[in-house]
Write a structure and sequence with these properties.
By secondary structure, this protein is mainly α. It contains four helices and no strands. The relative contact order is 0.17.
């Protein structure tokens, strides 16, 4: 799914930012799940180019009004860090 996603990632960034501010908890939860999957599955060539955008989205999630989202983002950042350390 994510292997060739990098080519089209730039087109999705504005929409990801909109979803990060969505009032619907499920929409935000799905966004952060997708961001984490992209960080851990995106082709390394594309990841190097877009990682800063994905990490920024997770960092923004730390200020979400719902503790559940904050926790999800902390875990996502920790796991992403472990993933990158191994690579």
């Amino acid at each position: 799914m994510c292997e060739n996603a990098g080519k089209f990632f730039e087109d999705t960034v504005p929409y990801l930012k909109v979803v990060a501010n969505d009032k619907n908890l499920d929409a935000r939860r799905a966004l952060y799940t997708a961001v984490f999957k992209l960080i851990t599955n995106l082709n390394i060539i594309h990841l190097r180019k877009y990682e800063h955008i994905l990490v920024t989205l997770l960092i923004n999630g730390l200020s979400d009004e719902k503790t559940e989202i904050q926790t999800q983002c902390v875990q996502g950042l920790e796991e992403a860090g472990k993933y990158r350390k191994v690579r």
